[in-house]
Amino acid sequence: MNVRRSAAVLAAVAVIGAAAPAAADPSPSPSQALPSALYGDSDPKYDGVWRQSLALLAQDTAGVKPAAKSVEWLVRQQCADGGFASYRPDPTAACGAKTPLDTNATSAAVQALAALGGHDEVTGKAVAWLKSVQNKDGSWGYAPGGAGDTNSTSVVIGALAAAGEKPEQVKKGGKSPYDALLKLALPCDGDGAGAFAFQPDKKGELTANADATAAGVLGALGQGMVVQPGAEKSGASCAEPRTPEQAAANGAAYLTSALGKDDDHLMSALAGAEPQPDFGNTADAVVALAARGETGQAEKSVRWLEKNSAAWAAQSGPAAYAQLILAAHATGTDPRDFGGADLVKQLNETGPAPQAAATSDATEKDAKDAKDEEKDSDSVFGVWWYVGVCLVAGIGIGFLFTGRRKQQP
């Protein structure tokens, strides 16, 4: 579940997990060199673990073996209790009570490391931590103890499934994550019929949210970010969401309608800004529809992404490339010929060369090595601080799916 966008997620106490760009320039200062094992060159404070996880997951999906040091970097980001923060500049320093652990980063790391295999101890500790911070209504918020939201609950469900758990059996106060999602699903009458809300508003009302709906469909189906192309299902009519399966069908119908209104893509609606195409959330919607078997609209929207997403991905970085690769995979589209672009190559070029992608071009390799050395002067980005509660509407990198960007609609 969003890339999505440029690199930094506005992490927040009650925020979700999809992604949105930070308002300030995310580029680190010259004195703040990034770890050479990290994908992307923007400030990782809010999305380092998220974008690294998506990059590794997308590489694995495309049959690429990631660089060993990039996998090790992700493993070392884990705290002793099993949780992951958005980014720890010095993984040798022990996590403390004020380390801002993050359910979205933790869940993304679990999905990536489970897919790569060989990290059962790491994923087991992470899952135990996730269970320990589940809310009494069965949900998860972005931060431990925060109000539950559709995006966070859904990305945790994906992590549980990836680790071999049965999400419906993971309960707190007798409530499972599916119970929580059903409470966030809108009825079939009124505005936003069939969609999922991110969270209830202050009055307890639910408002349709496209990114939350894409996440909610995946969560209700018990699936993570990687979806296998499946057989097409006939579209279901909206009905009272009494089961996770019906809620997923309702959400898919809502997404199909929303995509059809704007030439097969979603639009962002940030306050005070002109509406613009939302590439990340469109990619998320493709994955969600494919998971539900709504392949007709999923294929139309992935074709739109092939024609229009190149500039967005180049500006947004590794999480965006990963999102597009996952959308391509979900629809059986070749990510190495995505509208004429090789998404896998473009993703690989944002970080260390993968083990299975050694280049025969000595000049390119030397340039890559030089860049890695330049990035390798161990950095320290300063003291962690948590940005207060942000529920930003609109842009999507998907799933929390820019990963964590963190402005969500």
Account of the 3D structure:
The protein has 409 residues and is mainly alpha-helical. The protein has one domain (48-375): Glycosyltransferase, CATH 1.50.10.20. Helices cover 41% and strands 1% of the residues. The protein contains 14 helices and two strands. It has helices at 48-61, 68-76, 103-116, 120-132, 150-162, 177-183, 210-220, 244-261, 279-292, 295-308, 310-316, 318-330, 343-348, 362-375; strands spanning 266-268, 276-278. It has a two-stranded antiparallel ribbon with strand order 1-2. β1 and β2 (276-278) form a beta hairpin. It starts with 47 loop residues before the first helix and ends in a 34-residue tail after the last helix. Residues 1-27, 358-368, 373-398 and 400-409 have low confidence and may be disordered.
A few lines on this structure:
The protein has 409 residues and is mainly alpha-helical.
Estimate the helix proportion, in percent: 40-55%
Low-confidence stretches: 1-27, 358-368, 373-398, 400-409
Distance between the termini: 13 Å
Major sheet size, sense and barrel closure = 2 strands, antiparallel
* CATH architectural type: Alpha/alpha barrel
The succession of helices and strands, N to C, reads: HHHHHHHHEEHHHHHH
Count of runs of 4 or more consecutive helical residues: 14
What would the average pLDDT be, to the nearest integer?
A: 84
Number of domains: 1
What is the CATH class?
A: Mainly Alpha
> What's the arrangement of strands in the largest beta sheet?
1-2
Principal-axis shape equals globular
The proportion of strand residues reads: under 5%
Structural class: mainly alpha
Looking at the structure, the CATH topology is Glycosyltransferase
Radius of gyration in whole Å, from Cα?
19 Å
Q: Count the E strands.
A: 2
